[in-house]
Specification:
Length: 256
Amino acid sequence: MEIIIQPTAARATCVAARLLAGLIRKKPSAVLGMATGSTPLALYRELVALKLNWRKVRTFNLDEYVGTSPEHPQSYHHFMWENLFGQVNIDKQNVRIPDGLAKDIPKFCASYEKQIRAAGGIDLQVLGIGTDGHIGFNEPTSSLASRTRIKTLTPQTRKDNARFFGSEAEVPHHCITMGIGTILDARHCVLLAFGRNKARAIAEAVEGPITSMNPASALQFHPKTTVFLDEAAAAELRLKDYYRWVYDNKPDWQKI
Ligand code: GLP
């Protein structure tokens, strides 16, 4: 894993945006895995400001709440169109987000996996992290080999996400999420985490043992993962000075 620690979330977001923009410029038909939550919001704002050509870009979102229609203001469909897709020239046909209203969920999940394969796999997967280490909605004890499927949210995640809904009671109990195995198939994983409340989950994911109790720790198996952190989210890392040194001394050809 490459750990990039920046003084602020804004600076870390800027470097991450440069990385994504570089990919879109180099490969106009890139397949991107998208994430929701508050963490990638600034990244999407930066990408919009860069006025890239999204016409051929294809996207697959990580997850969606079950029972939530695309028009629901808290649906991840709505989030993506509001914060990114609606502001760039992406072709609607190239956007895939799990269908929270799917009648046959296992069938839908199998077809989602098939569509990712048919697109040639995901070039770059954007990830946030839950305070319990979840990626996508793969809660603790998710199989590290899991594929797209239905999951039940933990009480902690429902509490964490209640701020987006009117109240905790309105947060759905179920979701459809890419599995950890699906995420690990992406050619590059880019995890962003900002703020002190993510420090423990990050320390466990990066420096702890690989365990389904912290699903993000599975990224230690991935050959190319870049983790963007602000100082607060890096607070509990034991080797943070080493990660800083590595980043500051990258050979020129490796710089982002
Ligand atoms: C949700 C999403 C995750 C996201 C997490 C963290 O649970 N399904 O993809 O990483 O929230 O959200 P935030 O970035 O708002 O802290």
